[in-house]
């Protein structure tokens, strides 16, 4: 284990404004991590993303794009929580990153822009032996080494998995917020395989997800966020799992209640 525990300091809990009014902050004293993979589950608005962002900011993590999170206006509200979270480590390092599904397309565009800019600069240097070419050649070499496939010419799912395949490292902490977003069920299993390979090399993952497939990762701690705070539950207790099982067993029951003309379907 890398990150062992997060302790929430109580001095700010009297405030009734976001983010200090989030149930997981108001009603939770600590989170202990006992497995390499921890799954955060809960309805929309339960605060999963806010918790992930708070952990990332407290760890001074970088985004998958390489940009720091601290002092980023997008995280200004959550950054107020950072002084009230105390992270306790077994082994701390700066490896890993914070990933949000919303950042994925931006990352692809930025990577392609770096490649295009380097190619354009090289085309302006007429002397093939000029030392001015070196930094741009290095950029193209690094991108080709990190991403052997052209990320702009494959599907989002293929690019998504390729990025994780090339960026997961041993002994690193990864914070993944809804990583299943662009993936089919089969490709979610591919992602689980990549996660497991990294775990075998000492990596640790904290994952916020709505996917029953990701939630099923074996021997993991599942923590549910709700109006009553945060508690550990089993896979079979996850509301999304129960709902999906019931729906797949008899979808017509749900449609009969949802549609007024269900008899004609």
TrEMBL record:
<dbReference type="GO" id="GO:0006302">
    <property type="term" value="P:double-strand break repair"/>
</dbReference>
<dbReference type="InterPro" id="IPR003593">
    <property type="entry name" value="AAA+_ATPase"/>
</dbReference>
<dbReference type="Pfam" id="PF13476">
    <property type="entry name" value="AAA_23"/>
</dbReference>
<dbReference type="GO" id="GO:0005886">
    <property type="term" value="C:plasma membrane"/>
</dbReference>
<dbReference type="GO" id="GO:0006826">
    <property type="term" value="P:iron ion transport"/>
</dbReference>
<dbReference type="InterPro" id="IPR027417">
    <property type="entry name" value="P-loop_NTPase"/>
</dbReference>
<dbReference type="InterPro" id="IPR051535">
    <property type="entry name" value="Siderophore_ABC-ATPase"/>
</dbReference>
<protein>
    <submittedName>
        <fullName>ABC-type antimicrobial peptide transport system ATPase component</fullName>
    </submittedName>
</protein>
<dbReference type="GO" id="GO:0016887">
    <property type="term" value="F:ATP hydrolysis activity"/>
</dbReference>
<feature type="domain" description="AAA+ ATPase">
    <location>
        <begin position="34"/>
        <end position="230"/>
    </location>
</feature>
<keyword id="KW-1003">Cell membrane</keyword>
<keyword id="KW-0410">Iron transport</keyword>
<keyword id="KW-0408">Iron</keyword>
<keyword id="KW-0406">Ion transport</keyword>
<dbReference type="InterPro" id="IPR038729">
    <property type="entry name" value="Rad50/SbcC_AAA"/>
</dbReference>
<keyword id="KW-0813">Transport</keyword>
<keyword id="KW-0472">Membrane</keyword>
């Amino acid at each position: 284990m890398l990150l062992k525990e997060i302790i929430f300091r109580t001095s700010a809990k009297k405030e009734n404004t976001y983010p200090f009014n989030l149930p997981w902050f108001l009603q939770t004293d600590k989170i202990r991590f006992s497995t390499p993979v921890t799954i955060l589950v809960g309805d929309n608005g339960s605060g999963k993303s806010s918790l992930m962002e708070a952990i990332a900011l407290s760890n001074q993590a970088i985004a998958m794009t390489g940009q720091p999170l601290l002092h980023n206006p997008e995280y200004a509200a959550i950054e107020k929580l950072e002084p009230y979270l105390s992270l306790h480590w077994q082994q701390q390092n700066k490896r890993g990153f914070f990933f949000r599904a919303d950042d994925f397309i931006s990352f692809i565009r930025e990577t392609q822009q770096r490649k295009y800019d380097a190619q354009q600069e090289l085309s302006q240097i007429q002397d093939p032996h000029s030392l001015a070419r070196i930094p741009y050649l290095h950029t193209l070499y690094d991108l080709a080494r990190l991403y052997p496939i052209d990320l702009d010419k494959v599907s989002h799912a293929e690019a998504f998995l390729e990025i994780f395949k090339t960026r997961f490292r041993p002994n690193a902490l990864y914070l993944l917020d809804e990583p299943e977003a662009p993936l089919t069920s089969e490709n979610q299993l591919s992602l689980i395989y990549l996660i497991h390979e990294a775990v075998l090399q000492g990596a640790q993952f904290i994952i916020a997800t709505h996917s029953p497939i990701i939630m099923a990762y074996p021997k993991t701690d599942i923590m549910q966020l709700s109006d009553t705070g945060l508690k550990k539950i089993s896979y079979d207790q996850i509301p999304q799992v129960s709902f999906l099982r019931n729906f797949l067993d008899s979808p017509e029951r749900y449609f009969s209640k949802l549609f007024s003309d269900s008899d004609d379907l």
